[in-house]
């Protein structure tokens, strides 16, 4: 299957006639193209272009291909976007865009969606402190993208209106058009996000010039990022405003393909290149660069005195959230264990650092510092208060409003089974602990009895269809809510599955530890004795009682979807390696769940 062809465009400024005339010309000579993605201001910058713009929006002129925009500001933006927001067809969670008219979609706020196999993330609007209804992003939009950065998978395209601060501050960028300041139309928040998300392509507008930076390597990732800054449509200097790309989706690429680097690859512009030449100090030095910004979020120079540490001091965001930082002692930002402890006790991070929370009553976290006694005095059974607060937004907690309850097929006392969103194959099942736990290995021994019942039931169910079960779990020390995945494979392929996993491991540069057991309980008991909650590891339970496991070092890049990717290769369905390529409508999911329940009923251990 050929990679999708995508057109990228800078600030449109309402000049749709000129844009689509150029698009049709390019489409004729090099197309057909699948979509057009626009960054920078999309709406007119003056009333003179309004009639031309309105002709397209109201259907008198036709838009030739699906077009997506994030620059939701300019003349008539409020009128058009309010109407789109009220349209019943645009109600609900529309990460793939609010429909404005035929072939025109507004990417609102922030999000991530699948476009012809490509993972596309975006941040709509600009940084702004005024009271505009549209055209600015919120802290919630930023936080949603931070959460995306923790999810498995690689983002192919990241769209922002403004450039990241620091992207041109390298000798390698000497081809940058003269007279352009890095601070002009640049946003440090965008720098933080792109350093965390690590997209393969980052596209931005708003700066008035075309600029294609050399690819740069990422911290803690094997792939490179390419930055493209696009000029406005109809600019007087005739700089490039339309650019074509045809990237292969990362979800279908092999590890060797995704890690390829061209000879002109540079260091990340968000990493201080001279850091190694200077000793670490506790507070920010005058020579420190904004390039370290992906590791901190809040300026703590004005925070509560309880945590005060010096003028200009900054906390390491990575450390507070995960308890570790890949830079270790070389990190320029403070690893505050007490602040992290407050975070674990369910205290709002904004409150810890700033002494106040902008969300106010809508925030689900605590707005007072918690002593150790307070943090446990009102805890729920088998769950700390902090876990209870975090579980409100968890996709897998049964008490969470975010849980996809229509996917649940069986509920026990300590575990439940659900069908996944975007299943790899029919009867792909998730075994999920009821308790908000980051893995299934560290739970109480008594829970293993029920887990074994679910696993044995699925084995018998698969066997009745001429298939064998493969169970795998990615145990991340930064994990939130565990799920043990169960995937059926044809019994005729069972003999090959260990070789396939070993081959995949070899390509990533490691060898599995192999354990052989007579039953699930013994194998998992061995895993429990090896378990250390301060490490990340992957394990897979194969037919025949073989368990393969691998401890993942802090400096090692390991794909979070490794198990799924390997099985997709075994089953010759590489296009399904990314679950987002297999996403179904809620109606389709409900139908699949109902059919599964009927087939599984006689095997269900809860019945």
Percent of residues in helices comes to 25-40%
Beta-strand residue fraction? 15-25%
Structure class: alpha/beta
**Distance from first to last alpha carbon:** 44 Å
Any idea what the radius of gyration is? 25 Å
Low-confidence stretches: 169-175, 272-312, 372-391
Coarse shape: globular
Oligomer: single chain
Count of helices? 16
The biggest sheet, with number of strands, parallel, antiparallel or mixed sense and barrel status, is: 8 strands, antiparallel
Count of strand segments: 23
Q: Mean pLDDT across all residues, rounded?
A: 80
Strand order of the largest sheet: 16-17-18-20-19-22-23-21
Protein name: C3H1-type domain-containing protein
Keywords: Metal-binding, Zinc, Zinc-finger
GO molecular function: RNA lariat debranching enzyme activator activity; zinc ion binding
Organism: Acer negundo
Nutshell version of this structure?
It holds the Pfam family CwfJ_C_2. The protein has helices at residues 16-30, 50-57, 77-86, 139-149, 188-197, 255-258, 317-322, 337-344, 349-354, 372-377, 385-391, 447-463, 494-508, 520-530, 562-570, 586-600, and strands at 6-9, 35-38, 67-69, 98-101, 104-106, 110-115, 118-123, 157-160, 163-164, 186-187, 201-204, 211-212, 216-217, 224-229, 242-245, 408-411, 415-418, 429-433, 467-475, 484-490, 513-516, 536-542, 546-552.
């Amino acid at each position: 299957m050929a990679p999708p062809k995508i057109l990228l465009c800078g600030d449109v400024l309402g000049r749709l006639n000129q844009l689509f005339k150029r698009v049709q010309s390019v489409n004729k000579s090099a197309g057909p193209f699948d979509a057009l993605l626009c960054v920078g201001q999309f709406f007119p910058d003056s009333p003179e272009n309004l009639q031309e713009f309105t002709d397209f929006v109201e259907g008198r002129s036709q838009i030739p291909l699906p077009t997506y925009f994030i620059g939701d500001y300019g003349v008539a933006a409020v009128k058009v976007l309010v109407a789109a927001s009220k349209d019943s067809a645009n109600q609900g969670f529309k990460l793939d865009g609010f429909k404005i008219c035929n072939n025109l979609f507004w990417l609102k706020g922030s999000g991530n969606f699948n476009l012809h196999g490509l993972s596309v993330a975006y941040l709509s609007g600009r940084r702004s402190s005024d009271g505009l209804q549209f055209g600015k992003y919120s802290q919630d939009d930023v936080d949603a993208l931070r959460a995306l950065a923790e999810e498995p998978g690689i983002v192919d395209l990241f769209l922002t209106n403004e450039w990241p601060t620091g992207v041109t501050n390298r000798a390698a960028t000497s081809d940058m058009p003269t007279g352009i300041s890095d601070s002009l139309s640049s946003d440090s928040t965008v720098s933080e996000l792109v350093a965390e998300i690590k997209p393969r392509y980052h596209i931005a507008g708003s700066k008035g010039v075309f600029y294609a930076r050399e690819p740069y390597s990422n911290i803690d990732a094997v792939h490179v990022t390419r930055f493209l800054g696009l000029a406005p449509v109809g600019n007087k200097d005739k700089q490039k405003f339309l650019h074509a790309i045809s990237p292969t989706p990362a979800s279908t690429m092999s590890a060797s393909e995704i890690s390829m680097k061209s000879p002109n690859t540079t260091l990340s512009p968000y990493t201080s290149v001279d850091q190694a030449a200077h000793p670490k100090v506790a507070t920010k030095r005058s020579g420190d660069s904004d390039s370290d910004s992906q590791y901190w979020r809040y300026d703590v120079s004005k925070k509560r005195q309880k945590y005060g540490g010096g003028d200009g001091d900054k906390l390491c965001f990575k450390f507070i959230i995960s308890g570790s930082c890949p830079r270790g002692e070389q990190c320029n930002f403070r690893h505050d264990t007490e602040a992290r402890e407050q975070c674990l006790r369910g205290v709002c991070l904004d409150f810890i650092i700033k002494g106040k929370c902008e969300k106010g009553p809508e925030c689900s976290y605590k707005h007072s510092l918690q002593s150790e006694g307070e943090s446990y005095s009102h805890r729920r059974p088998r769950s700390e208060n902090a876990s209870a607060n975090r579980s409100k937004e968890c996709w897998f907690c049964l008490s969470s409003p975010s849980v996809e309850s229509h996917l649940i097929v069986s509920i026990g006392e300590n575990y439940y089974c659900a069908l996944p969103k975007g299943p790899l194959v029919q009867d792909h099942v998730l075994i999920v602990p009821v308790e908000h736990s980051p893995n299934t290995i560290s739970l109480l021994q008594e829970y293993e009895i029920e887990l074994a019942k679910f696993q044995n039931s699925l084995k018998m169910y698969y066997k009745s269809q001429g298939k064998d079960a493969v169970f795998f779990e990615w145990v991340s020390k930064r994990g939130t809510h565990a799920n043990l995945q169960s995937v059926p494979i044809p019994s005729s392929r069972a003999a090959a599955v260990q070789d396939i996993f070993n081959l995949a491991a070899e390509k990533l540069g490691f060898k599995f530890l192999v354990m052989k057991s007579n039953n699930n309980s013994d194998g998992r008991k061995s895993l429990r004795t090896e378990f250390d909650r301060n490490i990340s590891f992957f394990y897979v339970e194969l037919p025949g009682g073989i368990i393969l496991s691998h401890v993942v070092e802090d400096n090692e890049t390991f794909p979070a979807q490794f198990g799924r990717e390997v099985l997709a290769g075994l089953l010759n369905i590489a296009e399904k390696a990314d679950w987002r390529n297999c996403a179904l409508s809620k109606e389709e999911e409900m139908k699949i769940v109902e059919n599964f329940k009927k087939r599984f009923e006689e095997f269900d251990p809860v019945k």
